Amino acid sequence: MHYLLWGAGMALLVIQYFISKQRIVMLGAILPTVYIIFLVWLFVERDASWKDSIILFIIGMALLLGEWIAGWEAYKKKQKRELEKMKGRDLT
Question: What is the DSSP secondary structure assignment for residue 29, as one 8-state letter?
């Protein structure tokens, strides 16, 4: 069962990375927002402890926002390479 949860978590991080590589930067905010809503629901409905909720929040948001930043930087790098390629074709 734990392997399934770890696999789902890794799949969400991969999805977050690919969503963040899109031209529209705000698409990367979808999963962190859903994650916050899920944690609020978990805390309210399931009576989770503050300590567990804060730890889950910090770790989860750090991972999701890290992937968001990495994806956006990858998009900017790709865009820069394409611009340099176009400039190279114009000069010859």
Answer: G
Pairwise CA distance, residues 35 & 78, whole Å: 28
Q: What is the pTM of this model?
A: 0.79
- Amino acid at the residue 9: G
Q: Is 13 exposed, middle or buried (0-12, 13-18, 19+ CB in 10 A)?
A: middle
**Rounded to whole angstroms, how far apart are CA atoms 22 and 44?**
34
Q: 72 or 42, which is more confident?
A: 72
For tokens 């916050």, the residue is 36
Burial label for 48, CB within 10 Å (0-12, 13-18, 19+), is middle
What's the pLDDT tens digit per position in 17-70? Answer: 889 888 888 888 999 999 999 888 888 887 777 787 788 889 999 999 999 999
